[in-house]
């Protein structure tokens, strides 16, 4: 979460707030760098509709992978001490998050193929946030222009064909210029990232790929 950089004197604590602060008394704690972001941890129940932020830290821009791994373990231990069971962690696929997850697995002698780690011999699964997975798929597809999976191939150019034909006679409500030519801001929106994977496309794709011989590939891609 981005914050406006600012230093303020906290009279109650007799300290200046606004610096990087990871909440510990050791070398991971406060430093003389001005904070620009907040790192927030939230707990969410599986069987009840309940979500609550439980910890926040002030960082400069991002946080070092090693420090994030330590914080994750400390927070999981704290939740366990409160008699809750942590089933999984959920995060996006940012380099720091992936690095921390890999480091936690390495601590336990696990491989990159494993999707869990241990905290005090209790298994914690690793789940990547689904909305961000949509964006990651779209970004990789957009940059490469082609997606291959199990011998099948889909091309980004087919989306552009769909958008162009839509202007004349087809009904592609989700395939717009914003989808096929995303800007920096629209790349952050999940609804645009998921648009090309909606079931509206299989119903009409034969009109686009009848000449490009990729109908079967699109069919396979959209099902998987």
UniProtKB/TrEMBL annotation:
Compositionally biased residues, Basic and acidic residues: 203-214
All residue ranges annotated as the Transposable element P transposase-like GTP-binding insertion domain in the record: 132-194
Residues covered by region (Disordered): 203-224
UniProt-listed InterPro entries: TNP-like_GBD, TNP-like_RNaseH_N
Transposable element P transposase-like RNase H domain ranges (all copies): 1-104
Protein name per the record: Transposase
Organism in which the protein naturally occurs: Mythimna separata (Oriental armyworm)
């Amino acid at each position: 979460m981005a914050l406006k950089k600012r230093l303020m004197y906290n009279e109650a604590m007799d300290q200046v707030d606004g610096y990087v602060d990871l909440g510990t008394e050791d070398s991971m704690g406060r430093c003389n760098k001005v904070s620009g972001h907040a790192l927030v941890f939230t707990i969410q129940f599986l069987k009840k509709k309940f979500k609550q932020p439980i910890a926040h830290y002030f960082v400069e821009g991002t946080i070092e992978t090693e420090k994030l791994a330590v914080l994750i373990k400390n927070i999981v231990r704290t939740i366990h001490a409160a008699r809750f069971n942590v089933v999984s962690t959920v995060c996006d696929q940012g380099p720091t998050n992936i690095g921390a997850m890999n480091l936690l697995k390495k601590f336990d002698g696990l491989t990159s193929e494993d999707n869990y780690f241990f905290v005090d011999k209790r298994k914690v699964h690793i789940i990547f946030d689904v909305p961000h997975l949509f964006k990651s798929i779209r970004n990789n597809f957009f940059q490469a222009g082609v997606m291959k999976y199990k011998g099948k191939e889909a091309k980004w150019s087919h989306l552009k064909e769909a958008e162009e034909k839509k202007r004349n006679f087809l009904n592609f409500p989700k395939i717009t210029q914003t989808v096929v030519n995303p800007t920096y801001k629209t790349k952050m929106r999940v609804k645009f990232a998921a648009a090309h994977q909606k079931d509206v496309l299989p119903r009409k794709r034969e009109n686009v790929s009848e000449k490009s011989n990729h109908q079967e590939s699109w069919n396979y891609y959209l099902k998987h």
